[in-house]
Design goal:
387 residues; 6-stranded mixed β-sheet; 7 helices
Length: 387
């Protein structure tokens, strides 16, 4: 067996088993795993056949040369896959089959504190706890059915087709999950109907607000939106690039919250950047000599996607799904929750040996939610206008 084919089979087996936790029930993969083992154990016999075929080709046998050329042919797949990372913004919550997700919005009433005379008495206030419940219904993601031949009367059982069908469905299902996360962040709504990115809701019904501040908090200290736009972001010149001003804007946003949420909001250092702009930061440092001007510049010259600045190790992740000019920093608190019910995830396999056909499809139970107060953990920075 060719070493490349053996490695490919081993990789496919590992990927199928790795995807098991999010795509299929273990019982549905047992037969496929055995098929992989059998294919891998045929290595020595296959090697001997290929060696004999090569020897026949060297002896000028036309049929052997033709067959060897077929084995050496390469298939080029023109379908480019998008790999994104937007599930990183969500906290994964596995659920039991009988669990129901519900959010309870409430707020605490402030208690006034005042001086009284020695013959006086404190005032009485009635404690009323307002609350609103919101239930999150689960949804089913279904893949299309993939159909392929079960056997080839010349080559035997089509192990590669079965493996490829499973791996491709698993990848496409995971990609759809990430797309759902991206769509919710960019075009979806929070639990109170607000867009995830945009001005915070500070007026109206108390239970629909992003937060209710204590009287001592000066509103000017707190951000009023999580959709930031750099002041100088014209579409031409150096100010159109992804630049250090973006990093400083992220730090400024986080520091303005202080610790009013019980702990400071901090950047993880991970930033999803449009692939077109991923190298822009390196243009801020010009190597003019063998002596590095400072530690930050040295880091950028050594690795433009990973550097330290303002006490944070920043990592730029090029993303081909993002519109150039806008980036998405990942903060240390989740923007929302991703709910899964692994007990209901399933892979459907239907085999018709008479018609030499087998179909595979997968189903995943999932949903997302962004609580309104958690919107403060989402941040989007636009550093270049769209012309």
């Amino acid at each position: 067996m060719k070493i490349q084919l053996k490695q490919a089979l081993a990789g496919m087996k590992g990927r199928v088993l790795a995807l098991n936790g999010i795509t299929a029930h273990p019982d549905n993969l047992a037969e496929l795993g055995q098929a992989f083992e059998a294919a891998l154990n045929q290595g020595d016999q296959a090697k001997a056949k290929i060696a004999a075929l090569m020897e026949r080709a060297r002896n000028k046998e036309t049929e052997a040369a033709t067959e060897l050329n077929a084995l050496r042919s390469t298939t080029i797949d023109l379908y480019v896959r998008a790999m994104s990372n937007f599930t990183a913004f969500f906290k994964t919550v596995p659920l039991q089959p009988n669990e129901q997700v519900a959010f309870i919005h409430t707020f605490r009433n402030a208690v006034n504190v005042r001086y009284v005379g020695q013959d006086g008495a404190p005032r009485t206030a009635k404690a009323v706890k307002a609350q609103k419940q919101l239930f999150i219904d689960m949804r089913e993601l279904h893949s299309d059915e993939v159909e392929y031949a079960v056997r080839d009367i010349n080559l035997g059982t089509d192990v590669a087709a079965a493996a490829q069908a499973t791996v491709d469905i698993g990848w496409d299902l995971a990609n759809k999950v990430d797309l759902e996360a991206f769509t919710l962040l960019t075009n979806g709504k929070s639990t109170t109907g607000q867009g995830v990115y945009g001005p915070f809701k500070l007026t109206g019904a108390p239970l629909d607000r992003t937060w209710i501040p204590n009287d001592r908090i000066l509103p000017a200290n707190l951000p009023d939106t999580n959709d930031l736009e750099l002041e100088d972001n014209t579409a031409t010149g150096a100010t159109s690039r992804f630049r250090m001003d973006v990093i400083r804007e992220i730090m400024h946003y986080c520091s303005r919250w202080a610790n009013i949420w019980g702990a400071p909001i901090r950047p993880t250092g991970l930033i999803l950047v449009p692939a077109l702009d991923a190298t822009d930061l390196a243009k801020e440092v010009t190597p003019t000599s063998l002596i590095f001007p400072n530690q930050v510049a040295e880091s950028l010259l050594q690795n433009y996607t990973r550097f330290e600045y303002m006490g944070v190790t920043w990592t730029l992740v090029p993303d081909v799904t993002l519109t150039p000019g806008t980036c998405f920093p990942v903060l240390d608190k989740p923007v929302g929750e991703m709910y899964l019910k692994p007990g209901f995830d399933e892979e459907f396999v239907e085999t018709n040996r008479k018609k030499n056909l087998e179909t595979r499809s997968q189903m995943k139970v999932i949903n997302f939610a962004v609580p309104e107060p958690w919107r403060v953990n989402a941040l989007r920075v636009t550093y270049r206008s769209a012309d």
